[in-house]
Each structure stands twice: as structure tokens, then as C-alpha cells.
Amino acid sequence: xxxxxxxxxxxxxxxxxxxxxxVAGLTLAAVAVPSQIATxxxxxxxxxxxxxxxxxxxxxxxxxxxxRHLSVGADSTIAPVLATGVASVAAxxxxxxxxxxxxxxxxxxxxxxxxxxxRMGWIAxxxxxxxxxxxxxxxxxxxxxxxxxxxxxLTARGSxxxxxxxxxxxxxxxxxxxxxxxxxxxxxxxxxxxxVDPRLPAALVGMVLSVLAVDLLGLAAHHGVATxxxxxxxxxxxxxxxxxxxxxxxxxxxxxxxxxxxxxxxxATVRAPATGTPGGTGTPGTPVPEDFxxxxxxxxxxxxxxxxxxxxxxxxxxPNSAIAQSSGARSQLTNTAAAVIVVLAALVATGPxxxxxxxxxxxxLIFIATRLVRGGELVKIWRFNPVELALAVITLLVVALxxxxxxxxxxxxxxxxxxxxxSARPNDAVLGREPGTDHWIPRDVGRPTEEVPGxxxxxxxxxxxxxxxxxxxxxIRHRVEAAPEPVRVxxxxxxxxxxxxxxxLQALRDLAVELESxxxxxxxxxxxxxxxxxxxxxxxxxxxxxxHLFGSVEDAVVASAALGSDRLPRVERAAQDKTSD
Length: 581
Hints:
This protein folds into 2 domains: 17-420, no CATH class; 428-580, STAS domain (Transcription Regulator spoIIAA, 2-Layer Sandwich), CATH 3.30.750. 60% of the residues lie in helices and 5% in strands. The protein contains 24 helices and 8 strands. The protein has helices at 18-42, 47-64, 79-87, 95-117, 129-152, 161-170, 177-196, 202-217, 219-223, 245-270, 292-308, 318-326, 333-348, 350-354, 358-372, 375-384, 386-401, 404-424, 469-482, 502-517, 529-537, 540-544, 553-561, 569-580, and strands at residues 72-73, 315-316, 428-433, 440-442, 455-460, 489-493, 521-525, 549-550. A 6-stranded mixed β-sheet has the order 4-3-5-6-7-8. The protein has a two-stranded antiparallel sheet with strand order 1-2. Helix 1 (18-42) packs across helix 13 and helix 5 (129-152) packs parallel to helix 17 (386-401).
């Protein structure tokens, strides 16, 4: 199949792939059914809405998306954000709540499609890996706390994480042993299957066993085990959800927060390594694929479709995508097959699903939440840099204790702030020559170096910009003042300097004048083509003279030995000309 009108992943489809795609679709559907129902419950929506969200999102992404394995559907990462935001404008369980959820889905989809069309998918990189790890862990903790009353058979109370924990602790004596037992069995099945093969439909098996237990033992009628209850399954109607402008304004923060989470999670999913494990968040530092903007358009279309049929927002699913891939999926026909199977399951399983214990869904959600809390990654971050661990922990605490929307905003600020601080206060080094060579290396790397009397070689590992210009000028001044003997020449090694802005250029010009007043000269070595252009364009090269620019540090140091006093006043004259202007 090579027709241009065909979906992207089917344009070169081979008949030999069909069996593999169908088998992978069966595996994906077996995993998706329980997780989609559980996620719908987490979002405060009818159980069947999770299945419909998966179906419409899978079909629309299959038609538009470029990634062969990406699976889109109801997702536990964004479900609590949606539930919290929409609950502020409508009561859970009401028609107005369902309508507000659908409107959010359409708006989120519109944002994602617009970002994809404008090719702005690069904003996915605004969150660093440590902060993203803290963000997901905070969401995981909130999900666990939300589901604790469910698996214990208690009535959920409290509007905050701490409030919910206090309420659970104060009512532990009222725990329903049957509900807790069901949850533990289901959780044990899922964990055991996870160790054997993630593709095993343990959650589906747990659902079937718990439904049988409720029916055979009369757990709902005689032992107070809460169940999903009867619900009607019918094909949804298509229509644009309605809402007032004031309602849209109150939901704007939720829409933008969920849209950003969708961007970040989709990026993490599509750039995950081919051998990645389900639920992975991609390889840190791996660039977003070039067609990522098309992925966003596909996910956005899935959200718009979900809103038009009256269900809730969807997202790319790292676990489901990895399962599809590991099951041998060759194209998006896998997700199409899974969508058809899910529709059939919804139509024929209406009766049995009514007896499904909510504790089963709570156990499934707790398992999903534990995979968001990546303890091993936090340990790696701590070993690498305790400061970055602190950023992750702060984000985690804000998300879990204050709110997910506030946590996402803080995560962005912390990521950008931490990077800005690093660039504003960059690492630097004074270089020395390796004995017997012409190589110049930092003096503090544990290898012997030698100094050239009267010469200071200074290297900075950052652009020279307005955020660090004054700081770096002061650092160089302090190095000159701390030198054991008077400095005749400062060699600025520009190898680690990607660019210079106007403020940085001005600081270098002022530094050259200041050094001149001390009887010293400023040389620049190893400047890139871009930096050389900026030095020339900003008149610093004219101020210093082209013979103060060198291709290597060694050349600059050798030239410093032959520097005559008659050449130093050039900088002073340039400064005087500047003052007279």
C-alpha cells in the first residue's frame, strides 16, 4: 500500500505485517480495557467514557500520526489535573461536569494542533529531566492518596493530599477487609505479571476474578464492597460541547496545564529508546524527532475527537506504546485493531462490568501511580548533583501537597531558573601548559602544569551575555589581582564561549581598558567563527587590534613574550576616542 491518501504508517504497508499487527492489537486491548476504565474513574467520569476516549483517540492518531507504535488514550497523568480543574466549575457526576470535561478536551486538542502547526514542539524541552521526574512522582503520590480510601473501602473525604491522608488514618478501623483483599490480590497479580512479561493482561485477569468473586460470594450485597454499578453503553452522539466564556476562562489554567503535560509526555514517549521499558520517559538529552510536531497534531486531533463525542482529554501513553512495540506492532493498524476490540468489549461486557469492584480499579491505578514515582532515577540525580535532586523534590512536594497546576508552573520556572543560574554563574578555569607540550589545560585537573610568568590564561564555559558579563569581568579582575606577580597579558580562551551579546561585548571592552590601566593587554584565543564575527561587528577587534586575536592559546602566549610597550597604548587611544565620541 503506497497511496498518498493512506495514513502515514500504512503508506508502505506489507500484507505480511497483518497478523503481527492484529496479535499486537489484541494484547494492547487486553491491557487497555482495565486501565482506561480505571482512568475514567480517576477523572470522575463514567467508566465507559474511558473506553470511548481510547477508541476515538486511537483511530484519529492512526489516521494522522507518523509514529508506528504510539498509543493514545485516557491517561492517569492528566486525569487528576482534569478532575481538580473541572470540579471547580461543576459538581462531579453531573451533566455539567461531563460537558465541561468535553469542552476541556476540545480546547486542549486545539492548543496541541496549533502548537504542532506552528512547529513549536520544542517547548517540550522546557522541563529538565530532574524536574520532570519530580513532577511525575508528585502526580503519582497524589493518585495513590486519592485511591487509598477506595482500596480500603472507605468514603473519600478531604480536599487536599494531607487532608485525605489524615482522614484515612482516622478511619482505618472502618476498613472493609473484602475490598482491601480484592485490591491486594489484583495488585499482586499485576506486579507478578510485570516481573514475568509486561504484555500479560494481568489487570484484565484481576478484573474478571474480582467480578466473579462479587457475584459468587455476594460481596456487594452482604459485605459492603463498592462496585462500579450499572451503566448504559450506547454509541455516543457527536456535537460541539457548549460553555460560557466565564467557564472557559476558569478552565484556562487547567487546559494549558494539561496541554503542556501532553506535550512533555508525548515527547518522552516518541523519543524513548527502541528497547525501552514500558512507562519510560525517554532518554535524557535525546532530541525530539523531527516529525514530533505531527505527533502533536495527531494527539491534538484525538483530544478534539474525544471532546466532540462527550468524553474527556487523552494523552500519549508510554506504557501502552511500549507494549504495542514489544508485541510486534508494525504500524498504527495495531491501535486500530485494539480500538475495534475495545468497542466490542464495551458492548458485550456491560452487565459484568456493573459488578466490578471499585477496589480493583483503585489497585490498578495505584500500580500505575507507583511507576510514576521513579525512585531509581531520583537516586541517579542525587548522585550526579544534589542541587538538581532538590529541584526534583521541591517540584514533587508542590505537586503532591499544593496542586498539580501549581507544580507544573513551578516546574517550568525551576527548570528555566536553574539553567539561567548556571549560565549566569558559569564554571571557569585558569589554564596552565602541560610540560613538554603546547597544550593548555585547567590547573586543577590533577595533572602537572607550568605557568608563564606575567601571563594569565582564562577559560569560561558559557556564552558571554548580559546575565554573566559583570560577574565574569569581576572574576578576571580578581584573578589578575591574585596573581603571584604582575600580569602583562590576559589570554581569554574563547573555546567554551558559544556567543557574545552586546552587554558581554561592552564588558570585554571595559575590561580591556581596565587592564590597560594596569599595564596589561587582553588577547583572545580560539574564538569560533561566530564569536570572531561578533568581536569584529562590535568593534572590540578594532579596539584590541587584529594581532590580539589568535588561533590557539599557545600562539597567544608566544606572542605575549614579544609584546612591546609601543603596542599597548592602542587600547588606551581607542578608549580615549570612545570617550570623546
